[in-house]
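Re: export button greyed out
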Amino acid sequence: MEIDENSSRNLSDPQILRDTFYGGYKSVEEIYAFLDQKVAQFPNLVEKIDIGDSWCKANPGSCVLPSPWNGYDLFVLHITNRNIPGPKPVFWADGDIHAREIATPEVVMRMIDYLLNNYDTNADVRWLVDYHDIWLMPEVNPDGHHIVEAGGGGNSPYYYRKNGDNVGGGGCSWPPTAFDHFGVDNNRNFPFKWGCCGGSSGFVCDQTYRGTSAGSDPEDMAIVNKIRALVPDQRGPGDTDPAPITATGVYQNIHTNAAVNLFTWGWTSTQMPNYAETRNIAAHMAAPNAGGNGYPYGSIIEELYPVDGGSIDWAYGELGMAAFSTELGGQDFLPSYSCIDNPGCGSSQGLWPENRGMLLYLAKIARTPYLTSHGPDANTVVTNPPSVPQGVPSQLTASINFAWSNNAFSQNVGAAEYYIDTPPWAGGTAIPMNGTFNSPTVAVNATINTASLSVGRHVIFVRGRGVSDFQGFQTWGPISAAFLDVTGGTENLLKRSLTPDSWRGRDIRHRDAADRCLRRGRPQLRHLQRCLHVRWGGHLWRGYGCQR
Ligand SMILES: [Zn+2]
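Workaround output, generated via the alternate export path:
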């Protein structure tokens, strides 16, 4: 028998009891404390932006159920390395637009943690945070979440979906039921095709009540106004106007629990103008052999039912962003908390691990999602060794791959290239990689010359393309990266002075090392006094070297 410290503390500590609910889910207050913690911990990579007020904050004194409160600010966490100037492409993901879908803020918070905690150790995370504007909003609907938390004192959360807007809702059920409660459905209130097409309800107690007018509710307009300021309008006003193939920006509106990757349109069964590319991105989000979540995919109306005034129809319809709405699995709006990170609730991995690859892919392609969807992945990018003395080469290998499930744009790989420190969009120099370019999956390699690289950590960016262009553009896929650490000092000089064929297993002559040190501008003999053992090329070497 052992004491469960966490559970015991929950029983006795009113501070903690107040904060989490239903086995560990964060309350609104705790979600916001989490955001503050990130800002404090990573001040150069994170800022917390207040984009508006919830309905209850905008209407003080109006919210009295379950007990009076006055709403919340609406916060989004902006993640980027602010020491690297923009402009940068936008990836926006948000959660909990439907309050009872309580797994969604948890998954968004884990994405935040993943990007910040791995910045120093994962080269893909490094370049994403350096070069992309990532906006993560775990809690779109804090008023609704506040009501959900109140159910059973937190032990049996309410199946409350909508926001806190109670105008006209006096006749709705209280306590709220899954199908009858006041509030506006924030995902039916966006100012695009609002109430157009039978994809929402005009009855105030219904789950899909659209509100009194397009964009009437502050949670919707806070997102609309912020994203309008971040992403240009790239699509014409007509229903059939496509965004250009080079359009930028990705929007992801996360729900539960249908386990499906949805894209636009929801308001009509007519295919959206950028259908082929959008669908192929969704196929990648799903593909298990490309890090996807394994869910089905399709337009909202194909996979579920008509939706009008929905968020992703707005993001694509008004701005031309590639817009998706993944319904996480979980089998219920209120899955056991352990299913966020661990297998269970119908998820073989847990909801966050199952969807991490999908979210990272969306972040990676945010610069030009439609065009990049025509390109291959760059997988297993490795530098070997990952740490070398200056002047010693490192082998770079990767697999350029179109052959993931249901890739409609698969073709033979035509080329691969890498960049050191400066990626293509920042004016970096492409260095070609070797490979046998005659199939959809090609192993590629290169020898990285480190003679002119500074001592320290470098980012190696790798990408591949297809043999065929699309609409006049080369079909480069998303980048994957690896670190290469270049070391200096003694070991460096010593290794450069070795000649394996003639010197293997023998001492390096003092004289030889001294000559090289002198030639390299370190003329003080005291630098040469250190005897060293160095492992190189599978052998142990002994000799004298320069000491920094
Ligand atoms: Zn939902």
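Residues 280 and 408 are 6 Å apart (CA to CA). The button fix ships in the next patch.
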